[in-house]
Amino acid sequence: QVQLVQSGAEVKKPGASVKVSCKASGYSFAAYHMHWVRQAPGQGLEWMGWINPNSGVTNYAQKFQGRVTMTRDTSISTAYMEVSRVISDDTAVYYCARMVTTSTDRWFDPWGQGTLVTVSS
Amino acid sequence: QSVLTQPPSASGTPGQRVTISCSGSYSNIGSTNVNWYQQLPGTAPKLLIYSNDQRPSGVPDRFSGSKSGTSASLAISGLQSEDEADYYCAAWDDSLNGPVFGGGTKLTVL
């Protein structure tokens, strides 16, 4: 079955970088854009950006440009999302999600299980 | 401040029908289809409705979606205790080249 499995929880000090991985299985990894969405404690969903695993082309939400880097390793069907210079407001659960695209529509299915990133001094 | 507007909370008793609204603009809901995600407590979001009114395999037909103009709605009939969750609407926004989400609606089954 189609599945996304993310790396484990992280605790980082302010100013550090954190890198989260998302391993895909059950489908052709290169055929679907991978998006990243985060959710701060008790808050809603916030879209961060996407990567085209086939070409490596990325598109980041304006808020995260310059601080977020999305990469992939097609040999192991894994996408990565790195946030640099983290601050306390970056404390959140980070999700990867596969985007299914048709000629007229697009949606996320499935989502990874989430990775909790805690920023604390 | 989310781009799409949802009520923060909704509630109903078992067996009742509840609806959750989602309001947007021409650049998102008005131009594309709406999806709904269900997030049970402590878990990742899950696709509930796609393309305004389509249910993925395994989603009960108690869940239905609709869209009109720049607004959409999620209806849940025959409410059950296991429906207690957060519900998010989402739509693609061409100006962002990415999706926008509603702020989420917390559904309580009384």
Task: Walk me through what this model shows.
In chain A, strands 2, 4, 5, 6, 9, 10 and 11 form a seven-stranded mixed beta sheet that branches. Chain A contains no helices and eleven strands. The mean pLDDT of chain A is 97. By secondary structure, chain B is an all-beta fold. In chain B, 0% of the residues lie in helices and 45% in strands. Chain B has no helices and nine strands. The radius of gyration of chain B is 13 Å and the shape is globular. At the A-B interface, strand 5, strand 9 and strand 10 of A face strand 7 and strand 8 of B.
Q: What are the SSEs and their pairings?
A:
The complex is a heterodimer of chains A (121) and B (110).
Chain A: E1 3-6, E2 10-12, E3 18-25, E4 34-39, E5 45-51, E6 58-60, E7 68-73, E8 78-83, E9 92-101, E10 106-111, E11 115-119
Parallel strand pairs in A: 2-11
Antiparallel strand pairs in A: 1-3, 3-8, 4-5, 4-9, 5-6, 7-8, 9-10, 9-11
Chain B: E1 9-12, E2 18-23, E3 34-39, E4 46-49, E5 63-68, E6 71-76, E7 85-93, E8 98-101, E9 105-109
Return the average pLDDT of chain B rounded to an integer. Answer: 96
Low-confidence stretches of chain A: none
Mean pLDDT of chain A, to the nearest integer, reads 97
Helical fraction of chain B equals: under 10%
Q: Give the SSE string of chain B.
A: EEEEEEEEE
Which sequence of SSEs, written as H and E, runs from N to C of chain A? EEEEEEEEEEE
Radius of gyration of chain B over all CA atoms, rounded: 13 Å
Shape of chain A, please?
globular
Q: What features would you highlight for this structure?
A:
heterodimer; A: 121 residues; mainly beta; 7-stranded mixed beta sheet; 4-stranded antiparallel beta sheet; 11 strands; 0% helix; globular; B: 110 residues; 6-stranded mixed beta sheet; 3-stranded antiparallel beta sheet; 9 strands; 45% strand
